[in-house]
Amino acid sequence: MTGPKPLANILEITPYKGGQKLEHGWKLSSNENPLGCSPAAREALAKTAEHLEIYPDGSALKLREAIGKKYGIDPDRVVCGAGSDEIFQLLGRAYLSPGDEIIQSEHGFLVYRLVAQQSGAKCISAPEQDLKADVDAILARVTDRTKIVFLANPNNPTGSYIPFDEVKRLHAGLREDVLLVLDGAYAEYVQKNDYAAGMELAGEAPNVLVTRTFSKIHGLAGLRIGWAYGPESVIDAIHRVRGPFNTTSVAQAAAVAALGDDAFVTGSVEHNNSELDRVGPALQKLGFKVYPSVGNFLLIEFEDREGRRAADADAFLRARGIVIRDMNAYGLPKCLRLSIGTKEANDDVLAAFEAFAKAG
């Protein structure tokens, strides 16, 4: 007996694997907020959890209104999802057919490719320059079949970003029927004068969508809550393909409270910047190549020789209770990605890297 067969394009998909963890030790593989989440969000979650028998608001009105107030945007042009990942999935349902194409930067977020594969579309990767998105390379790969361009800015896993002027140049070079998706999952961490998440562009252009998440700076990864802002026509299309209750009541309530806790966000950014400035140079001093990052993680490159490769370092760290992320799936086999943890976790990481350096 053979049983039902899924679509051929589905069998070609390699499922996404999140960062692994150990029973004991430090999990620094998923770019989670080491400070946890806002106490206000935790309190709101507990209060809402007293009435789990009630369906959530399918329109997430209070959350959309809170987002609108926070960012000065029209809440009617906001749609919420189970993390920004679900927004990407919904875009695939709404805009992609077999034979279509999406474009991403060479080392873009893996989920974009999965979205294309699920729809029978093709993912085109544009080469990067020094692990940064290359606008000219992206535009050169636009064809009549291109439907969506995904740009993670900042990018995971490289930690790089492109200035907003370059984002605007990318948009100006696209046809109006090509949707530009600006993934700002790590936007709150960026402290650069030439950076912008693209909210203004999404408010004006008919083909720009900005996506954001509560998983990173707000520390609500376990609740799966994110949102998107863009043209009415795009938001309407997403609403038509999303589930009627795609975000939970507890996630909505916690997200509203998180938006109101500026002190927690500020503290998270300050901790991240301080530890980035400490950990990155310390690793470089030990002889490791560390790429500049504006996110809450670092991309580390290793030597290509016996005992000193990324896989060797990964095994060495795991033996000491430290899990970080291998980059094979991203086409970066020489690299590992390290999430910034608590000061204690980072101290242990540096000690482990020092031991690994001396072992070579």
- Number of distinct beta strands: 13
Number of domains: 2
Q: What class do helices, strands and sheet pairing give?
A: alpha/beta
Q: Cα-atom Rg, whole angstroms?
A: 21 Å
Name of the CATH class of the largest domain? Alpha Beta
- Proportion of residues in β-strands: 15-25%
Mean pLDDT: 95
State the CATH topology of the largest domain. Answer: Aspartate Aminotransferase, domain 2
Could you give the topology of this structure?
Elements: H1 8-11, E1 26-27, H2 39-48, H3 61-71, E2 78-81, H4 83-95, E3 101-105, H5 110-118, E4 122-126, H6 135-140, E5 146-152, H7 164-172, E6 179-183, H8 199-204, E7 208-213, E8 226-229, H9 232-241, H10 249-259, H11 262-285, E9 289-290, E10 297-301, H12 310-318, E11 322-323, E12 325-326, E13 335-339, H13 343-359
Written account of the structure:
Helix content is 39%, strand content 15%. The chain starts with 7 loop residues before the first helix and ends with a helix. The chain has 2 domains: 20-36 and 263-359, Aspartate Aminotransferase, domain 1 (Alpha-Beta Complex); 39-260, Type I PLP-dependent aspartate aminotransferase-like (Major domain) (Aspartate Aminotransferase, domain 2). The chain is α/β, with parallel strands linked by helices and 360 residues long. Strand 9 (289-290) and strand 10 form a beta hairpin. Helix 3 (61-71) packs parallel to helix 10. The radius of gyration is 21 Å and the shape is globular. The strands form 3 sheets. A 7-stranded mixed beta sheet has the order 2-8-7-6-5-3-4, sandwiched between helices. A 4-stranded antiparallel beta sheet has the order 9-10-13-12. Belongs to the class-II pyridoxal-phosphate-dependent aminotransferase family. Histidinol-phosphate aminotransferase subfamily. Its cofactor is pyridoxal 5'-phosphate. This is Histidinol-phosphate aminotransferase.
